Amino acid sequence: MTRELPIPPKPTEDRNFDDLADKFEKSIYGGLKGRLRLLVLERDLEALPGDAPARILDAGCGTAVFSAGFAARGREVVACDISETMLARARETFAREAPDAPVSLVCAPMQALTRAEYGGFDLILLHGVLEWMADPEAALDHALTLLNPGGGLSLLFYNRHGLVMRSLMLGNLDKVLRGYLKGWKKSLTPTHPQDPAWMLAWGEARGLTLIRHSGVRCFVDYACERTGHQMTEEDVIEAELMLGRQDPYRGIARYVHLLFKS
Known about the structure:
single chain, alpha/beta, 19% strand, Rossmann fold
């Protein structure tokens, strides 16, 4: 059964999606883009050693489409988000996909959760979150305080290099040359797109073991309209899953997924 948890203080600078919930849900999980995202995540997380994680934190859960799959398999899930609107969508997702699962919802940033109050987790999901945070490094370090020994840390983030490539293809040279890659206020282009090399270096410096490194949408966003009509959705998925673990293709993917083990 779903229960509400205490509300710790909210941050002042991390992006809140109360004003973009409908657009977010449609753009992130709708259609081929959303299908690719979920397929890559599901494939990568199969690499976690041992039994499936018993206790999971979905940090910045949004609509909780991915973590609901764990809940449906009987895993305990704590889902947090600073957006009350998005958390309401998550509540609907869990009620539909895992009505009897042990799920807890908390309207708060992950940075406000402590091990003393919320316990430790075998798997922490930070999917599409870090690129919207004012201080991603501090958030990552805090996540480690909540991660159990041997636990998994799943990071899916908007790739700075993919954004540069897309901007160049659209002719936004001035934007690239000035290094101004932030999206407009009402857009879903993140405020802090991340560099995969920095993320990898962070994990190495913290003594984490990299288990998986994949790109999401390595080429499909760059295919011209004429080419797009010649590709079936299944063909695109097959090619994306193949190229997603190869350089240089994953280096220009719109999103990058890194799975670490503590």
